[in-house]
Specification:
The complex is a heterodimer of chains A (423) and B (337). Chain A contains eleven helices and five strands. With 423 residues, chain A is of the alpha/beta class. In chain A, helix 6 links the parallel strand 2 and strand 3. Chain A is globular and about 75 Å long. Chain B has 337 residues and is α/β, with parallel strands linked by helices. Helix content of chain B is 35%, strand content 17%. Chain B contains twelve helices and 14 strands. In chain B, helix 2 links the parallel strand 2 and strand 3. The model of chain B has no long low-confidence stretch (mean pLDDT 97). The chains are: A alpha/beta (423), B alpha/beta (337). Chains A and B meet through helix 11 of A and helix 3, helix 11 and helix 12 of B. Bound molecules: thiamine diphosphate and magnesium ion. Thiamine diphosphate (TPP) sits at the interface of chains A and B.
């Protein structure tokens, strides 16, 4: 045993606390971000042994080059209609987000979260998955619903907790749920959906089904035990699940270094669990599509789970309750070297001769009209803050399938209280 | 003396104690550079450095576990759990480890540490930013549970909690963080500047754990309350012209039984109010204590006024919230019986 005497010549221990490159008032510098050329990463066969692709978590799969051309083995070779539809869906997410953000600012609801700059993550995945695959999203994958044609009015009614909200005003805005669209109910408790997705996938495998599950989690939330529980179970049972980590580099005010992103990548978590890990340019819709497709095909072929890190950037605040200028330089998002997913897909389509500025403007105008019309329609059913849209009685429904005596009694008391308040 | 809101008072408690005791470290999600989502730890990292006030990964179990390890080393961690609703991943570490360390080692290892967390509704936070889980912690052994209701107490109690030799859960009523609350959500409030309890000394002082305060003296009925509900109780008594004695428990474990007993024996009637769900809530414990000790002084059954046994709804927030109407009905019953 070494005695403390022998250690004397060493420096005193010190604690390392990760710190982002730039704080407010400083210049952001993304020059240190390693960006391999588009098309430079090999695409293995789906039945490759995870041990043979341990380099993939440390590189970056990219398809669209700086000129908007699709290059390399990961190019999913999508037809122009699909590309246009993806462009439309991403643009719709953006227009919808902008509108609902403003509605919150106008006092029509309590809370909102945008996904500006991250639209490809959900939209491209939705296109790569089958329509009946089950999604376990976070609050930033509204693009899944939009890509699956969930009515905007339904989304807005949820945001307003109004009379049209099928969740009966119980959930915080944006915590959508729609079983029919394969969109699992969003939880406020970070990470909980991850093992649930694995369990759903295990269920599908137990029953010899053909559907797979996909889950999303933020870089920050990968620190939760539930992330590690999920990947452990997924690996053990080779569950048919696509596990996405949306690395937008920020949690609320803490950067990805606080989540463990300083020493390694999020995709590299996969290595320790013995499953494939892909690291993907999350602002490249074609790369997101291709990686999702690869992982989905593996899952469908009983080859098990894949962990996909989608490297992107949270351009705006965490939510309407957040002001990022308090902890990071202003305008950092505009400098993100991997650009804007919407603009990149647009450039790609224009390069193919399948799109032009005029059509793009028409699209934006048309989406603006659609969103405005949906907003008008949903606001007819109320906004938050006025008379509550839900009845007092409804508050006691759905705690259990049946109302036990104590909830019946409490419901009576609540009604009596409402009556007393009216007087 | 300075006028402080709850946040400023809590911030000041941290500042005073970090200045006095180099073993105090402050940790939690977003508490470092940013100073916490409610800004309770603002400025601490700048003043005391990154190894004394720092951000943690989003892993409440990890936060609690590492904080316990730091306390075992000899530090005094003051941990922020961003919302009480997100404390559950840390439940095992707090309940099975922090709460039992002294006992299982016969005092060989002890854990002077504080877990702070905003709790309660009233900010349209929906079911995951509104919960009041105090009874869960009151139910297990070895954890003290403290809940202030005003800036003066918040600072004094937090300092006492930091100095306490055992783990303390410190729930902060977020409804009254920034501004006061006078019981009625639909009415204008008196600003903190006009509340005597917002006069807070800048330096060190303590409000002892385990001691209740009589927030209002009265003779006809005792209202037992803590946190935001103290303000509901005061407003209701005032509004209805009831000669109620309002006891602000301040600490629920260990609860100040002497003050409770003296008051209920004086008034002969007792109404308990908390925002948490009813079944198995701390009100049940209080009702049991009151009947055990004051049975022959009671002139009416003890009443409980609580949140309902449902998750906290978003749109019906104020229907759920136990406000003056609900308390008024119970007071009337207690006084008529
Ligand atoms: C269990 C739990 N702890 C803390 C929070 C509070 N919280 C909500 S979102 C968030 C940051 C999440 O960051 P990340 O996972 O990177 O997702 P992003 O918002 O960037 O999409 C935090 C700390 C929570 N909702 N749940
Ligand atoms: Mg993030």
């Amino acid at each position: 045993m070494t005695s403390s005497n022998e250690r004397r010549n060493r420096p005193a221990l010190s604690l390392h606390v990760p710190e982002p490159d730039a704080r407010p008032g400083e210049e952001v510098d993304f020059s240190g971000v390693a960006i391999p050329a588009a098309g430079s990463v090999a695409r293995p066969d789906i039945n490759v042994a995870p041990a043979d692709i341990r380099d993939l978590p440390y590189t970056l799969i990219r398809v669209l080059d700086d000129d908007g051309k699709a290059v390399g083995p990961w190019d999913p070779r999508l037809d122009a209609d699909t590309l246009r539809r993806m462009l439309r869906d991403m643009a719709m997410v953006r227009v919808y987000d902008e509108r609902m953000f403003r509605a919150q600012r106008q006092g029509k609801t309590s809370f909102y979260m945008k996904s500006l700059g991250e639209e490809a993550v959900a939209v491209a995945a939705a296109h790569a998955l089958d329509r009946d695959d089950m999604c376990f999203p976070t609050y930033r994958q509204q693009g899944l619903l939009i890509a699956r044609d969930y009515p905007l009015t339904e989304m807005m009614c949820q945001v307003y907790s109004n009379a049209g909200d099928k969740l009966k005003g119980r959930q915080l805005p944006i915590m959508y749920s729609d079983r029919e669209k394969g969109f699992f109910t969003i939880s406020g408790n970070l990470g909980t959906q991850y093992p649930q997705a694995v369990g759903w996938a295990m269920g599908s495998a137990i029953k010899g089904d053909s559907r797979i599950a996909a889950a999303w989690i933020g870089d920050g939330a990968t620190a939760e035990g539930d992330f590690h529980n999920a990947v452990t179970f997924a690996g053990v049972y080779r569950a048919p699940v696509v596990l996405n980590v949306v690395n937008n580099q920020w949690a609320i005010s803490s950067f990805s270094g606080i989540a463990g992103g300083e020493l390694t990548t999020f995709a590299a978590r996969a290595v320790g669990y013995g499953i494939p890990g892909l690291r993907v340019d999350g602002n490249d819709p074609l790369a997101v599509y291709a990686a999702t497709r690869w992982a989905a095909d593996r899952a469908r072929s009983n080859l098990g789970p894949t962990l996909i890190e989608l490297f992107t950037y949270r351009v705006e605040g965490h939510s309407t309750s957040d002001d990022p200028s308090a902890y990071r330089p202003q305008g950092a998002g505009a400098k993100w070297p991997l650009g804007d997913p919407l603009m990149r897909l647009k450039a790609h389509l224009i390069g193919l001769g399948e799109w032009d500025e005029e059509r793009h403007q028409q699209l934006l105008d048309q989406l603006g009209e659609e969103v405005k019309a949906a907003q008008k329609e949903s606001e007819k059913l109320g906004t938050l803050g006025g008379e509550a849209a839900q009845s007092v009685e409804s508050m006691f429904d759905d705690v259990f399938a049946e109302l036990p005596w104590h909830l019946q009694e409490q419901r009576e008391q609540a009604l009596a209280e409402a009556e007393a308040k009216r007087k | 003396m300075t006028v402080m809101n709850m946040i400023e008072a809590l911030n000041s408690a941290h500042d005073v104690m970090m200045g006095r005791d180099p073993d105090i470290v402050v940790m939690g999600e977003d508490v470092g550079y940013f100073g916490g989502v409610f800004r309770v730890t603002a400025g601490l990292q700048k003043k005391y450095g990154k190894t004394r006030a720092f951000d943690t990964p989003i892993a409440e179990g990890g936060i609690a576990g590492t904080a316990i390890g730091m306390a075992a080393y000899g530090l005094k961690p003051v941990v922020e759990m961003q919302f009480a609703d997100y404390i559950y991943p840390a439940f095992d570490q707090i309940v099975s480890e922090a709460g039992r360390m002294r006992y299982r080692t016969a005092g060989e290892w002890t854990l002077p540490m504080v877990f702070r967390s905003p709790y309660g509704g009233g900010i349209f936070g929906g079911q995951t930013h509104s919960q009041s889980p105090e009874a869960l912690f009151a139910h297990v052994c070895g954890i003290k549970t403290v809940i202030p209701s005003n800036p003066y107490d918040a600072k004094g109690l937090l300092i006492a909690a930091i100095e306490d030799p055992d783990p303390v859960i410190f729930f902060e009523p977020k409804r009254i963080y920034n501004g006061p609350f006078d019981g009625f959500h639909e009415r204008p409030v008196t600003p903190w500047a006009k509340h005597p309890a917002a006069e807070v000394p800048e330096g060190y002082y303590t409000v002892p754990l385990g001691k209740a305060a009589v927030a209002r003296e009265g003779n006809d009925v005792t209202i037992l309350a803590y946190g935001t509900m103290v303000h509901v109780a005061l407003a209701t008594a005032e509004e209805q012209g009831i000669d109620a004695e309002v006891i602000d428990l301040r600490t629920i474990v260990p609860v100040d039984i002497d003050t409770i007993e003296a008051s209920v024996k004086k008034t002969g009637r007792c109404v308990i109010i908390h925002e948490a769900t009813r079944t198995g809530g701390f009100g049940a414990e209080l009702a049991a204590l009151v009947q055990e000790r004051c049975f022959y002084h009671l002139e009416a059954p003890v009443q409980r006024v609580t949140g309902y046994d449902t998750p906290y709804p978003h749109s019906l927030e104020w229907t759920y919230f136990p406000g003056p109407t609900r308390l008024g009905i119970a007071l009337k019953k207690a006084l008529e019986d």
